Amino acid sequence: MPGVHGGHHGPVPMPPRRDDADAPFLPGAAAGVLPPAGEHGEPLGEPVLQTERVTFAYQDGTVALRDLSVAIRRGARLAILGANGSGKSTLFLTLNGILKPAQGRVLLGGAPVRYDRAGLNDLRRRVGLVFQDPDTQLFAASVRQDISFGPINLGLSDAEVRARVECAVADTQIEDLTDRPTHLLSYGQKKRVAIAGVLAMDPEVIIADEPTAGLDPEATARLLELLNRLHAMGRTICISTHDLELALAWADHTMVLRRGELAASGPPQDVLRMPEVVRGARLVQPIVLDTFARLVAAGVLAEDAPPPRTAAELVALIVAREPGSRNSGAPEVAAYNGSA
Ligand SMILES: Nc1ncnc2c1ncn2[C@@H]1O[C@H](COP(=O)(O)OP(=O)(O)OP(=O)(O)O)[C@@H](O)[C@H]1O
Ligand SMILES: [Mg+2]
Fold first, then answer.
1. Domains, the chain
2. From the CA of 64, which ligand is nearest?
3. Residues ≥6 apart with Cβ < 8 Å to 204
């Protein structure tokens, strides 16, 4: 497969099958619909990239996506979760036009993607895909050449190409790698080079398939910072991940895939609270939410307390319990001062 540059750029029931890709839902949620919301609860923008009833089967007959309708909204920080083989990578390849659905459509900015050269060029200029496996993405001899390839293909001037490459290199902190042969890099280094190659294209939507897999914790933290910076600059970002703590802390919106279908969709702190959803996708509930649920069950926190996304938010909830409330003196919490 060509590189992205070379490609030119109680039990909860399963949700009913839906034609409407937009309205997020949680299985079993009363109204069935939760509004998509940004970090501060503001509604997200219109769908920028969507699948509409997409079914995709590989040549050997494996059906990887089944009648799947999902929408990535402008300005989203979306995390796609799901067990191995649930269809995440197939979805990403479909969103980037590398795979063409057997049924259904992919829409970019509301218009169906055209699978001729011009249509695919436009799609790949606007939607940058970071492949799960960096070896699929990297192909040029040196790191600098690899990152330059996309901008050169866009027909930019030499000066502009250089500026784009320098910027992407700085953003991914790979200054010390630029003259090295790509095939000699470590996995995590290749991963960062692959991300730099996509950044250099300056796409409005970035879809990254397990971008933090194989990165050390420091590199993961920096990548999240980078994704947040890109988000603050107006980019729409969609990642897949098996790291639920990351999804909980970082994403505004989460979708869970299960056998090529959408099993749940909504804010991560709501989706990941549902043990049925989490177990069904062969995931493990983030410890922050597990602890939160235990504190609610123990009566330490109120039933309607807002679910936390980080340990710091959980601590803030505990600290902020109303004085005089029946739980405020719960000894198991009050006694904890960090040194016990
Ligand atoms: N080239 C292929 N030919 C046949 N079947 C494939 C091919 N690629 C993927 N599949 C199958 O399609 C289904 C979805 O695979 P996909 O790679 O999209 O899952 P995933 O959610 O990305 O998994 P992972 O978490 O392991 O990356 C799986 O059943 C997989 O075996
Ligand atoms: Mg995958």
1. 47-267 (3.40.50.300), 290-334 (no CATH)
2. 1
3. 48, 126, 127, 234, 235, 236
